[in-house]
Amino acid sequence: MKREIMKTHQSRGTTRCVVPLLVICLLIITGCSTSPEISYIQTQGNISSVTWEQINTTQEIVKQEENIDQLFTLASLYLQGIRESADPSLYEKIKQVMESARSLEPDNNNILFFEAQVDLGRHLFSDALKKAIRLTSASPKTNYFYGVLADAHIELGNYDEAEQALEIMINLRPDFSSYSRIAYLREIFGDREGAIEMMEYSTESSIAIPENFAWSISELGRLWSISDKNKATQAFESALNTYPNYTPALMGLAKIDMAEKNYQKAITKLEKALSILPLPEYATLLADLHEKQGNFQKAEAYYKLVDIGYDRIEASGTDVRMERTKYRLDRNILPKESLAIAQQLYKEKPTVFVADLVAWAHFRNGNREEAKGWIKKAQETGIQNPSIIKHSQLISEK
Length: 398
Hints:
Elements: H1 24-28, H2 49-64, H3 68-85, H4 90-104, H5 109-121, H6 125-138, H7 143-155, H8 159-172, H9 176-188, H10 192-205, H11 210-224, H12 229-242, H13 247-259, H14 263-276, H15 280-292, H16 296-315, H17 321-330, H18 335-348, H19 352-364, H20 368-378, H21 386-396
Helix pairs in contact: 2-3, 3-4, 3-5, 4-5, 5-6, 5-7, 6-7, 7-8, 7-9, 8-9, 9-10, 10-11, 11-12, 12-13, 13-14, 14-15, 15-16, 17-18, 17-19, 18-19, 19-20, 20-21
């Protein structure tokens, strides 16, 4: 199949995402107001000082006057707060803000846009897709609506449709959001060099907002880490210089330490990351590292934190079946139950990553022939994901 958007572009001026699911709001949307039903953020938590000051200011404005523009601004800031703090409770606050906005302008498309962003953040991708189709049909010239459409299609495994959405998006407006999403799609199709090229464009376009720049340069570091550890290290360090204590950069550096068997350095970085954001993936890596070193008591404590973390996220309304099942299969926990969950997930979203999950589940259940078929399906796009490659090697061994 000819994939025009997958080709290298000749000009930086004419051309996600772990997609960045929550990035584009802060750059493009401004505005919205509030109502008595909104439960405002009271404490800063892990939100940056700059964002927290903007949230405080906007909340005060909204309390004084119901205004659609200020309500949208507040929703954008809450989304940015989620990116910085990983606090899923903020999704509910965004929904409250949109209820207030709907009471003012029930037909405003940006209400549906923010609600779709909440769906994406909670991994409710089919719901997000329905909203995105409505948005792009109602307003076909609004480029950031196509970002939501592309995100939903990618997460549902509809890669051709995602490509079409991104082609329209970038033609309407080449920017940080379109570059980063194209980078992710290129990565899925095994074009690492093309993905790096697009993330370089994205990084250049994100300099104005420190967290966006830190995310972009950290993604570059992740892509480079496969082939050039020095470039990857420089990228992660650049992220930390721009946005101190940025946890994805800390994790990236920790993984490089792990690859070089500098386990104690990796533990120090991951402990810092976990203290900032209590995410299950940081606790998982810490548990694995302590287990490697024979510190089984510490490892067990961190494994408990993983389950607590997933429970907390799930309680917020976010679907974590994919992440929790992968975590369990990696440790050969509940393989039969995990296989059933993986098969159901593939019915819902037939992505290369879920195909890999089904393959891994079959392997853990001793179904090697079934696993071979599924791992082949996971590699149909040419993806060079290290985890998928590792699973393929293990499944193919005799």
